[in-house]
């Protein structure tokens, strides 16, 4: 089930290892998107660039890509959640045997609208330069990689919540029955781990984002994505949204 895991191990430790691995993917995706300027025409609601499609070009590219990926079975995987879930075609390929560790109620949790809004309206302007180079299709492909990586990480909260519940059902059952979201939030929060995550992603942006040359000199002042933006991304959005998924999952856990 988890990225890079055999599927047989389901522990908080193995889930956290997967979240750490996903940080690399997220940092590299952001660095790829930073190769292009803002290209705001891509996101413009009123520029109908595709004949017969009404809406921003980025919507067209994401919807069409998700449709192909759905046919190839992407959304059968409980780790994946589409940005445009309405009218997706069914999978045409034989089902892979994903281990069904989640409670069935988890399948209805999809907070991609909030992730889309955060990414386009708040995050992008923090790490891409202004301008338009006309590379809309490549820019949108890069946006989709970032969005999918962020969505996977944030919805991984379902697996985190499941294992936390299994490890301490007696602690979680009373607030679940009382539908006490605040108490659940307190129970699942681990501030020590959050602090480590924020420090580590900032460091990854420093290490991965340097220009590497053949000599011993690296340019340590210029990073492909500002490391403080990556730390802020996790602090303000990734961690809080992951915890929102965890709470939403737990609230449904005993249904
Ligand atoms: C994901 C977890 O749950 C919470 C969310 C965290 C995160 O999004 O990085 C970190 C610690 C917890 O507060 C976890 O415990 O690992």
UniProtKB/TrEMBL annotation:
Gene Ontology cellular-component annotations: cytoplasm
> PROSITE patterns, from UniProt?
CHORISMATE_MUT_3
Pathway(s) per entry: Metabolic intermediate biosynthesis; prephenate biosynthesis; prephenate from chorismate: step 1/1
List the catalysed reactions. Answer: chorismate = prephenate
Say yes or no: keyword Amino-acid biosynthesis present: yes
- Which Pfam family is one of those matched by this entry? CM_2
Enzyme Commission number: 5.4.99.5
Q: Which organism is this entry from?
A: Populus tomentosa
Question: Protein name, please?
Answer: Chorismate mutase
GO biological processes: amino acid biosynthetic process; aromatic amino acid family biosynthetic process; chorismate metabolic process; prephenate(2-) biosynthetic process
InterPro entries linked: Chorismate_mutase_AroQ_euk, CM_II_prokaryot
Query: Keywords assigned by UniProt?
Result: Amino-acid biosynthesis, Aromatic amino acid biosynthesis, Isomerase, Signal
